[in-house]
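Re-run with default settings, no changes from the original entry. Doing this only to confirm the output is reproducible before filing.
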Amino acid sequence: MAVVYLGIGSNMEPDLNIAKGLQVLSDELTIEQVSPWYQSPALGFEGPDFINLVVRASTDMSLTELVLLLKQIEMQFGRAPNAAKYSSRALDIDVVMYDDLLGDHAGQTLPRSDIWRFAFVLKPLLDIAPALVCPKSDAPVADYWPLVAQQPITQVEPAGSLQRSASSLAAAGY
């Protein structure tokens, strides 16, 4: 089984859409860990703040199958196939890492450069995988933190105090 890290974000009813998105994902993947949730300003456009998190999951799907699934889920949540890169989203799901794949695969560049570019990806990734090593540099992913540490992010609690561990997701029916 492949180990995957997925970046999840929303700035349109994020508590509702992320919780529902996690439920849909858990029907297709084995969710092993869910990071704390972080709020950050919209990037590249004026809009509501985003809520972001990272999920560690395992799957028997190929990367191509996983990417197609994620696009289908995003479309279920109202994302148009030709949506502007920098725009509001009910649900955005990106493959951050897929096992130790490196380079261009299935239309994805892995590992996703957002890891070392954005605190809203790196911080939740470090929360669930503090010893993770980047397959591109063979350096600990934590080494990238000084590059993004000044970016504004705030840990937030989801509405209804949704628990974010794998065991509580399972207990909640995810």
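Helices lie at 14-28, 63-76, 114-117, 119-128, 145-148, 166-171. The longest strand covers residues 50-59.
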